[in-house]
Design goal:
Layout: H1 4-10, H2 14-18, E1 31-33, H3 48-58, E2 64-66, H4 68-76, H5 80-87, E3 91-98, H6 106-122, E4 127-132, H7 142-162, E5 166-169, H8 180-189, E6 195-197, H9 201-206, H10 211-217, E7 224-227, E8 229-230, E9 239-240, H11 249-257, E10 264-267, H12 279-292
Parallel strand pairs: 1-2, 1-10, 2-3, 3-4, 4-5, 5-6, 7-10
Antiparallel strand pairs: 8-9
Helix pairs in contact: 4-6, 6-7, 7-8, 10-11
Length: 299
């Protein structure tokens, strides 16, 4: 287990310590999540997964992430292997929702986490992104729930690890781990021998944090990331294509490029009612921004 002082001591390389005045060579093979296409768990399955993979493949991304329930839907029909093979985009990760505050539901939740993690592993995924449960933030008491959160999170991490995946905490707005201070408190108390950090940098910025500073503080734990920008406009829950918002995307990418361990980076943009552009158009803007930063994509 590491505390914040240990993190700062273990930051590797002059680039991270000195602010990365010169960008490192671009070695990240960036992927994309599927939520922009409306690929969420639903009672009727996830028909938009195919359109998401088609567009992600056409832009040359190196992998995709979705909810494991989507994978289970297609797996039950015997069509998931063919779908992934058709578009040539490998599964890297899945967003596994975990209940960290309801102790009565913990055993049931842990069994579901195990089931879903095994589906991800079966189809070649390597990372489980642990998304905390939602709470009523206006009445929520983090301090009263902290011990239960950390205990439940440690159990979920062990379940995902036992299934053959690496697991990381993904702080999220509207959940039991939302703010900068909550994120730091949990990461400093949890079993970080197993638990890694999988931040959503757009959500950090939306929550009032300096996303780049949070990534820098916990860089030794960052093994996965949702790369998302935030402008506060009326579309996409305030998020926007990369390069159009307030998140210091270039700085964050320099940080993870300079890390001494591999980092999965997945571009993400939330779905939007009456969107001003199609998912493919939005993803194309982000792709072009990344190309300007020196990233290359499959052709």
């Amino acid at each position: 287990m590491l505390n914040r002082r240990d993190f700062s001591k273990t930051l590797i390389g002059l680039g991270a310590a000195a602010g990365l005045s010169a960008a490192p060579s671009r070695k990240l093979k960036i992927g994309y999540t599927c939520i922009t296409w409306g690929t969420f768990p639903t009672p009727t399955g996830s028909p938009t997964l195919e359109q998401a993979l088609k567009d992600i493949s056409s832009l040359g991304y190196y992998g995709f992430e979705t909810f494991p329930e989507n994978l289970a839907d297609w797996d039950a029909k015997g069509e998931l292997k063919g779908l992934i093979g058709k578009y040539g985009v490998p599964l890297r990760s899945a967003y596994i929702r975990v209940n960290l505050t309801d102790t009565a539901a913990h055993k049931e939740n842990l069994a579901e986490v195990t089931r879903l993690a095994k589906i991800v592993k079966k189809y070649g995924g390597s990372f489980g992104v642990l998304g905390p449960n939602g709470v009523k933030r206006e009445t929520y008491d983090f301090k009263a729930n902290r011990a239960n959160i950390i205990s439940a999170l440690n159990d979920c991490v062990m379940a995902v690890t036992d299934a053959g995946l690496t697991a990381g905490l993904h702080q999220h707005t509207g959940t039991c781990i939302e703010t900068r201070d909550e994120t730091y408190s949990v990461l400093e108390g949890a079993n970080t021998k197993l638990l890694k950090f999988a931040p959503d940098v757009g959500q950090l910025q939306k929550g009032g944090a300096d996303a780049a500073k949070v990534v820098e503080d916990f860089l030794p734990l960052v093994q996965h990331m949702h790369l998302k920008d935030f402008s506060g406009w009326e579309h996409f829950l305030g998020y926007c294509p990369l390069g159009q918002g307030k998140v210091n995307i270039a700085r964050i990418l320099d940080l993870v490029e300079g890390a001494n361990h591999p980092v999965n980076v997945m571009v993400e943009l939330d779905q939007s009612p009456n969107p001003p552009m199609t998912p493919l158009e939005a993803a194309t803007i982000s792709t072009n921004y990344l190309k300007k930063l020196g990233y290359k994509f499959l052709t």
